[in-house]
Automatic annotation (TrEMBL):
Transmembrane domains' residue ranges: 21-41, 53-75, 164-183, 189-211, 232-252, 282-301, 391-415, 435-462
Keyword tags: Membrane, Transmembrane, Transmembrane helix
Disordered: region residues: 589-637
Protein name: Uncharacterized protein
Amino acid sequence: MAFEYGAQKLNIRNPFRFEGLIRSVRGFLLVAIGIYLLIQIQPLLGTDKPRAWMNLFIGGLFVAGGLNALGGGLFQVMRFFVGRAAPASLATNVAREAVNEKEPTLYNASSLHNMLMSKSNPTFVEPIGWFARAVHSVFPNLIVTPWPIRNVAQNLAMKLTKSLVAIVAFLVASLVVTMVFSGTEGAEVGSTVISLVLQATLLVYLGLLWVKLGNPLSRANMVQLGSTTSKGLALVIIGAIAIPILTAQGWIGFWEQLPASSRQNLTETVPLLDPVFRTGSLLALTLICATIIAAVAITLIKARIGMVQIQTSSSEMNNSWRFDLHPRQIFTTLRDLVLMQKRQQELPNRIYLDSNDTGDANRENEQFNGDLLAEIQPLVEDKAEPDVLRWARVGGTVAGQVLLLSGALMLWLGADRILDHAYSMDEIRAMGGNAAQLVSQVFAPMGATAAILLASLLLLGFGRTLSRICHLFWAEIFFKSNIFDLHCEGTVMRATHYRGADRHSASSEQDVFSFDATYFALATEAVSSTFAVSGQHNLEQPRYLLSLAPCDGFINSVVGDLEEQFRRRNEEIHSEKQADREQRLDYIRQEQEARRTGDMAAQGLATPEQRASLEADVVSDRDREKIARWEGDGTDS
């Protein structure tokens, strides 16, 4: 769908202005901090070269990331270009005026006709898998939302379920470890080591689970409904029981192989190393961020579900026609005259089906049929948003950018602390410090620094996830349009119309057609939505039909205008017949008067040489009735 400029705009607002503004603020702050760090390089080169190189690395990251965020945010704030061909068609557009559309479609002409006929909506497909069914059982109206929202909801539900299972598994594993080490030698040391391993495993699992979220507006999420399996849950449950037992048994075997001196060293060292690891704090941060994301997402989804009143209805009309017209006029008049008058903003209608065999219906009693399915240009519709949706979306957008900024600042802080630890280690070694001093003054702070770096990565990942979820609810744009479907079939009748005194002396002849047809018309007022993206292909995304409402006024107007055009054309044809009939009767009267007076040449009817033959062919009243029957006057009067 190429961009088509037109002075008459479609009045589609830019949905990303606020989001782009917040994103631009974060980008500006990152660029400012990055420039500050780069400026500090020159003074540090003479006193602290390692820190100067560190500033170069972190400053370069901040400037690059900040410019990316600033540019993307400003791109969202700037003008939202929408061509005259927006939004995408519901199915392949077969109209002569159709542009080269490349966006994917979820429907075809057959499915649209079935929707109107059966009063159903195949957009709301059945969920796949038992877990998806369970999610839709908890949120029964989730099925009437577009596919990207359903995919995100199922994905978040799976993340919540896996997180709860992982936490329960961690508690079970801790209990199993306690039971395994109960009464064994080295139980305290082994319990501490295994607990730290389990905490680290849980932290990595939860972090990767929540940080890893694909783009909800990717093409795959838009054209297909995702399926969620329980394979991951089974692996978590099995691992929660098997891994702690195997790890504990491995530690017991390792402990038994150690000499007494090594056991004594481990018993003294492990309690000192315990404060180095900050897995508890990182777990708390992970759970808090995951809870925030889940709360915002659930609020947005529940509020979005109630925005559109779902209907699956259509208006119907069926009747029969009999007009003195060629059946080809049914579809050409409907498409190029009646429906063209229903256009919105002077844009051509979307034609999804235009198939008929009326062009070959030229013989007496020949049958014909045809179908026409069209959509009037969709108009953007501003849906009334619930306050909870608006504020949750705004709050989630701000929170996501704050998390991203906080993650970047913690990355700077953690990188700056690395050099301090290196200097502290050199000082302790120079002073001949013991192991206890190294652990308390070097390794414990290094553990805190490592926790800061991990926390920065977690915050960056959670902020990215939250921003993507909120972006999905900024991007949805609603449209309203009318869809009209006509099926017509009937029989053609043909007659020959002669011009002149009779068929033997006719100056010309013309084939006159009439049709006797039965039609069935369907129409609906459709509410659809699509998800915009920032960029060149802003509205080249599939459109989802959400609601189909009856529109009796529209279908009555279309069929009424079509029948009015038929009557007008019929009256014109009858007027021409009447004029031609009067002309022929006038000619007959003049001829009879000339024959009576014997002055054919004076009347301008015949030359003197033709008088003998014309006098033998006087038209009587009975002959006049025969002529009327030949010309079809008996049926037209």
